[in-house]
Amino acid sequence: MAQWRMLVAATLLFFAWKGDALDLPWPPDGGGRSVVEPEPETLRWVENVKVNQMLPKDRLYLADLYDAMAWVITRDRLRTAPVLKTNEDFVRFHAGTLQLAIDRKEVGKYPGLGKAIDQVFVDCLGDDVVVLGDDEHDILIAACNALAWRFSIHGG
Questions:
Q1: Which residues are 86's β-sheet partners?
Q2: Strand, coil or helix: what is 29?
Q3: What is the b/e burial string over 116-155, where b = at least 16 CB atoms within 10 angstroms of the residue's CB?
Q4: How far apart are CA 25 and CA 46, in angstroms?
Q5: Between the CA atoms of 44, 49, 52 and 53, what dihedral angle is there, to the nearest 10 degrees?
Q6: Given Cys at both, which of 30, 35, 119, 155 links 150, Cβ 3.0 to 4.6 Å?
């Protein structure tokens, strides 16, 4: 359980401060805010995530959140003993991050958004329990990057 808290905390730290007060490189390549356009195949995973009616600040908030999640997944896979071993582990990590990052009063602000986001991960990895190897980590990172693109102002 302590590993979960550490992984969620890492996501939130990188997401919340993004280089403002912490001496952490953000994004990891050192540039400013930039989300690289995903491959067309990956963009298909997120096409049902409706963003046009969202406030720009909410879109950017979620773009930054999923960008941070991709970064944390990238770092976790390099660990000797990764925290994310299965897609069930990812589901817990994703849910924990959202619970801490989204104010309770904001939940449901955009009907269907949560289900659409969850469906992205089901579409890319399936709903059966799978062990996360290199390919599955790449898929999760690509899905988070696609969500970051979709939520970014130029992605919808």
A1: 131
A2: coil
A3: bbebbbeebbeeeeeebeeebbebbbbbbbbbbbbbbeeb
A4: 27
A5: 170
A6: 155
**68 with 15: CB under 8 angstroms?**
yes
**Sign of the C-alpha dihedral, residues 146, 147, 153, 156?**
positive
Average of per-residue pLDDT across 124-153:
93
Answering whether pTM is above 0.85, one says: no
pLDDT tens sequence across 14-68: 555 554 554 545 445 544 556 678 888 899 999 999 999 999 999 999 999 999 9
Token pair 């007060």 in the structure block, residue: 21
Lowest mean pLDDT among 22-36, 77-91, 112-126: 22-36
Q: Which two tokens stand for residue 11?
A: 């996501």
Q: Please state, rounded to an integer, the average pLDDT across all residues of the chain.
A: 83
Whether the Cβ atoms of residue 117 and residue 147 lie closer than 8 Å to each other: yes
3-state secondary structure labels for all residues of 70-109: HHHHHHHHCCCCCCCCEHHHHHHHHHHHHHHHCCHHHCCC
Other CB atoms within 10 A of residue 40 CB: 7
